[in-house]
Amino acid sequence: MRPSLLGHCVCVKLAFSLTNNDLHKLFTKYGKVVKVTIVKDKDTRRSKGVAFVLFLDRESAHNCARTINNKQLFGRTVKASIAVDNGRATEL
Questions:
Q1: Which intervals of the chain form a coiled coil (predicted)?
Q2: Residue 8 burial (CB count, 10 A)
Q3: What local confidence, expressed as pLDDT, does residue 30 receive?
Q4: Which of 22, 46, 51, 72 reaches 20 to 30 Å from 40, CA-CA?
């Protein structure tokens, strides 16, 4: 599969208790989820409340970002947008 067809959505201000499986289940309603990556503190390994969600297609990522942005999830107002490749990671 060509990476250019995939879509990345970044979500911030997530509840710290959410796991990869929780987010995978939550985001599958917006499209086929390929991978969920939760950003964690390198020392404590606790969630920073940020996650990157890789969708099978860009439209699903856009749909997720539009729908989730500024919504209440688990008591927190989540911000979501399309992730932009900054060139630092081989895979987002």
A1: none
A2: 22
A3: 94
A4: 72
Instruction: Identify whether the C-beta of residue 11 lies closer than 8 Å to the C-beta of residue 50.
Output: yes
Give the span between the Cα atoms of 66 and 38, in whole angstroms.
20
Q: What is the pTM of this model?
A: 0.84
pLDDT of residue 41: 94
Q: Are 76 and 88 in contact, with CB atoms under 8 Å apart? A: no
Summarised one tens digit per residue, pLDDT across range 34-75 is: 999 999 999 999 999 999 999 999 999 999 999 999 999 999
Q: Is 35 exposed, middle or buried (0-12, 13-18, 19+ CB in 10 A)?
A: middle
For the record, the structure tokens of 12 come out as 């911030």
Q: Which tokens sit at 75? A: 């008591």
